[in-house]
Amino acid sequence: MTDSVIQHSPIDAVITWVDGADPAHKEKLEKYILSIGGQRPRAASTARFHSLNEIEYCVVSLLKFAPWIGTIFVVSDNQAPGFIKKLAGTKYESRVKVIDHRIIFSGYEDCLPSFSSMSIASLLWRIPGLSERFIFLNDDFCLIRSLSPSAFYRDEKVVLRGSWKVQTERRLIKKIVNWFKRCFGVGEKNTSNSRVRFIGVQENSARMFGYMQNVFQLEHNPHPWRKSVWRDYCERYPEILKTNISFRFRSPLQFVPEGFSAHCLLKMGLAVVDNQLRTLQIKPGDQALIRIKAKLAQADRDASYVFACFQSLENASPEALATILGWIDKRIGDLDHFLAQEAAADREFYSESKCI
């Protein structure tokens, strides 16, 4: 694909989502856990599948602040967000599509059901009709200000946000810890129920492309990808893809797709690093209410904050949750409010057109 074609190709968005409160999903999860012995892995914590309708804010933020996005694909497991019905008969009906896991896992049905976000995201490039350029988001991401396509793509290159770090195993303190383990005969831990650290699976991705000393540590924000890069690599190394998607739950042995894409594109010279735009990151389970309010106020003042990530809202106290949702409603609004505003704007436009 030539640079000029890439520059003028549409940009889609892909969001992975699951409603963990859905009885059918709960039954599927519990049935699979029983099939592997009945012990719930750490990666199968109910918090991982919890939903407080973040997906609606995510989609509305894309429609509102990035109207240049072509199609928004919501990838889920035989589910559809409730707000999808509201789009029927509107001009946005064809722009938001739900894609089932069975579609992207076609030919890999033995890897279903999958509860690993890393397994699922490894196959997003297989979405039918997906454009060459697409932005990957978790459902707890959203935009909070208007931005242009250049925030994600510049010519044929993607824009990465993050910085180079020394890999964990290469750090002096880690070397000292490993030396003590060897001296005292401490063996390797069983990784089947280990905590999956985001930096750890990024390091797995870095090593795939020969980065043995350092890792490009990504920020928590939407990630721009190139479909052909994924397709070409997976067709060349199908066994690597199959291994990664074979994990039903998140595993420290996997490579994380965000890290795969970043390191692959850096290696190919198809990425630029720009950290001017920032992410508001809210973790109500770890942050006091006073800090949450301060961070929200800072994001209101500072125009460099264009992304937001609201992690594990189910851990928020009632007061913190009310504060966060109130801020999101004011900043983004729900779909009903967005559609009402759009309808009013359309009526005003047609009214003015008739007067000309």
UniProtKB/TrEMBL annotation:
Keyword Transport in annotation: no
Residue stretches making up the Stealth protein CR2 conserved region domain: 48-157
Keyword annotations from UniProtKB, A to Z: Exopolysaccharide synthesis, Transferase
Coiled coil start-end: none
Domain Stealth protein CR1 conserved region residue range list: 10-33
Domain of life: Bacteria
Pfam short name (any one): Stealth_CR1
Family classification: Belongs to the stealth family.
Protein name in the entry: Capsular biosynthesis protein
Gene source species: Cellvibrio fibrivorans
